[in-house]
Design a protein that fits this description.
The complex is a heterodimer.
Chain A (H helix, E strand, L loop, with lengths): L3 E4 L2 E4 L5 E7 L7 E6 L6 E5 L3 E2 L7 E6 L2 E6 L9 E6 L6 E2 L3 E5 L1
Parallel strand pairs in A: 2-11
Antiparallel strand pairs in A: 1-3, 3-8, 4-5, 4-9, 5-6, 7-8, 9-10, 9-11
Chain B lengths: L1 E5 L2 E3 L5 E8 L7 E7 L5 E7 L6 E3 L7 E6 L4 E6 L8 E8 L17 E5 L2
Parallel strand pairs in B: 2-10
Antiparallel strand pairs in B: 1-3, 3-8, 4-5, 4-9, 5-6, 7-8, 9-10
The chains are: A mainly beta, B mainly beta.
């Protein structure tokens, strides 16, 4: 099973700052990685798939990169609606697994 | 595009529950469908998936032999039959769509339903 480790667990940021979130895989997942955003009391929503392909409707201030075992989600100029929990998910290996999440909260 | 789950509730350990997920606004019969769960305050865990015509199913080891996924394309519905429920099955259960081809799922998830809470407790 591929374990995904997200860091940091919590990121305290101010509106307008740039947030950088990390997802590390225990073995290579090539580019088979997705990112999701989950706001309180809501379902997750897809941000990126194939490591860096932005899903429809996702603002351009969100970007993602990486391959193999190291992946990054960057949120430029944080807006109030971006404070949420972010999860990575791999689909290269069975079973499908998620990281533990990074919570981006207001400093 | 919408997924709406129902059927959650309180059940005793060893009991059974059937979750339903109603799809609308997209070509349901072309989508693989998955169930993903989230224990209170915890992360996301994949549970099960079913292919477009319901002929192929896959399960996480933790639910294999206890849970059964099925679908009815005529009704745009996907189901999760849960038997021999355990306390650690307590979670919000989300259904999620997967726009892969008939033969190959994408295995990433869009759209998601709002979830239904299953509580297993005596």
């Amino acid at each position: 099973e591929t374990v995904l480790t997200q860091s940091p667990p919590t990121l305290s940021m101010s509106q307008g700052e740039t947030a950088t979130l990390s997802c590390r895989a225990s073995q290579s997942v090539d580019s088979d990685l997705a990112w999701y955003q989950q706001k309180p009391y809501q379902a997750p929503s897809l941000l990126f798939y194939d490591a860096s392909t932005r899903a429809t409707g996702v603002p351009a201030r969100f970007s993602a990169s990486g391959s193999g075992t190291e992946f990054t989600l960057t949120i430029s100029s944080l807006q109030s609606e971006d404070f949420a929990i972010y999860y990575c998910q791999q689909y290269n290996d069975w079973p499908l697994t998620f990281g533990g999440g990074t919570k981006v909260d207001i400093k | 595009v919408q997924l709406v789950e129902s059927g959650g509730g309180l059940v005793q350990p060893g009991g059974s529950l059937r979750l339903s997920c109603a799809a609308s606004g997209f070509r349901f019969s072309s989508y693989w469908m998955h169930w993903v769960r989230q224990a209170p305050g915890q992360g996301l865990v994949w549970v099960s998936r079913i292919n477009t015509d319901g002929t192929k199913t896959t399960y996480a080891d933790s639910v294999k032999g206890r849970f059964t996924i099925s679908r009815d394309n005529a009704k745009n519905m996907v189901y999760l039959e849960m038997d021999s429920l355990r306390v650690d099955d307590t979670a919000i259960y989300y259904c999620a769509g997967d726009s892969g081809t008939y033969f190959v799922p994408e295995n990433w998830f869009r759209p998601w339903g709002q979830g239904t809470l299953v509580t297993v407790s005596s």
